[in-house]
Design brief:
It is a single chain. The chain has 85 residues and is mainly alpha-helical. It has one domain. It contains 4 helices and no strands. Helix 1 (2-10) runs antiparallel to helix 2. The longest helix has 34 residues, at 47-80.
C-alpha cells in the first residue's frame, strides 16, 4: 500500500486516482485464496495453521482500509469545499 501510494504521488496522479490505486491494487480476497490453498495443501493436517496468518493479514487490511477511506474522504471533501456532517 505504501509503495503504491508513493508511486502514484511520484507520477502526479490525482487524489481520486491515488485512492483507487491504494484500495484496488493491494486487496486480495479470502474467497478465492482459501479454496486455492485448500487444493494446494489438501490433506495436510496443519492446514489451519497455514492459512491463519493469511486470515489475520486480511483482517488487518480491512481495518486499515476503513481508516484510510475516512482520511481520503476528508481530503476529498476539503478539496471539493464540502463540510462533513
Amino acid at each position: 500500500m505504501i509503495i503504491a501510494r508513493l508511486l502514484v504521488r511520484y507520477f502526479g496522479f490525482s487524489l481520486q486516482d491515488e485512492a483507487a490505486v491504494v484500495f484496488c491494487g493491494s486487496k486480495k480476497s479470502l474467497a478465492s485464496g482459501l479454496p486455492m490453498a485448500k487444493v494446494l495443501f489438501s490433506g495436510h493436517p496443519g492446514f489451519g495453521m497455514i492459512v491463519l496468518p493469511i486470515m489475520c493479514y486480511n483482517q488487518i487490511q480491512v481495518i486499515l482500509g476503513a481508516i484510510l477511506a475516512q482520511r481520503y474522504r476528508a481530503k476529498m471533501d476539503a478539496l471539493n469545499g464540502t463540510v462533513e456532517d
